[in-house]
Description:
17 helices; Rossmann fold; N-utilizing Substance Protein B Homolog, Chain A; alpha/beta
Amino acid sequence: MTGARETALQALMACRKEGAWANAVLKEYIGRNRLDARDAALATRLCYGVMQNRLRLDFFLEGLLSRPLSQLHPVVRDVLHLGLYQLYDLDKIPASAAVNESVALAKKYAGNPKAPALVNAVLRSAQRCGKPEEPTSYALRYSHPEELIALLKGSLPKGTLEPMLKADNEAPRTVVQANTLKITPAELKRRLEAEGAEAEPHPWMEGALVIGGMGSLERLPSFREGLYYVQDPAARLSVLCARLPKEGAKVLDCCAAPGGKSFAASIAMEGKGEIISCDIHPHKTQLIANGAHRLGLTNIRPLLQDAAAYVPQWEGKMDCVIADVPCSGLGIIRKKPDIRYKNLEEARALPGLQRKILENQARYVRSGGVLLYSTCTVLKRENEEVVEGFLKAHPEFRAEPLALPDLFPKNETGMLTLIPGQYDTDGFFICRLRRKP
């Protein structure tokens, strides 16, 4: 049978060879290998732990090897990463299990008869010597490439860089939003606890619960009944900042998949009005449709539509347009740890696309209506600079102050950047714009 460690190795190999995203490929292998909840949790921790600490683990490996790191076979390197992560960072796993299982994986996957002996020697040495001192540089200690750190440093306020890097390597808590059209948050808490989950009210997001003690929520009856959906507080906050009317508004969510913001909007509107939820990919519009059906949200209409392409019949017809545009994703590294290793050059063209989408979506906002711009990145070039350029070209729009929960500073600019390490959220940018009457 395929266990947690082998599943984690399979996912790491697929990410390396195919450029696959860890969260997607790991879910695929967990299902394929039929792991139970306990093994699925361990496979996830191992895969994510190695992804989050790759540069740091390489630093440790260099001190244990008698040959250059570059000469290691890629699979052997993956196996050693898994072994070292267990030895250095997971105190509940016996060292003997970490070493022996790694040797077995080398025998099965490395394709070199000498590989198991090398893995055994390196990990036994690591076990004898104990955990070394942490590297001093941010790049190695937190496994963020130097180029990425320089880019973040240019956008983040003083004193927030290291907390963000640290938060990127922490396991995010699972937060669910109650479907208040079906159940109150208090009733949902009792229901989840009856199903074996740990559930506590979120410290500042009304209607949200922090969930623990569970594997996949999808197997719970409460999930199948549509009593809640999973959503980070930052994404939910962006929709709340739109302050959607409840008396039959018409809302366009132009980059909606997988649907969380449309779901939040529908619940905020008490199931009234109309929400057109668009995506450019058919399988993603189907995700939106499936989610809306599960939650019983009948005012959501999924639609296949490119956010940058003009739809004449929507001109000036929307009370609110939600534009959560494609971005570099640097605010969600804690959930997609491999983002940190992606080619940053590919993100340079994003502000142009973001501005194009914002310009197009602005045409649909009625007189006096709201345009909500958001991203899941913290870079100014994709956030403030895009909005500022748009406002200079469109004096018919203005930024409006955001109504935020009490723990946030008072907002006057109409723009907010949530930075990982501050409020226990994803990194996120929110801007509320209004077309002047």
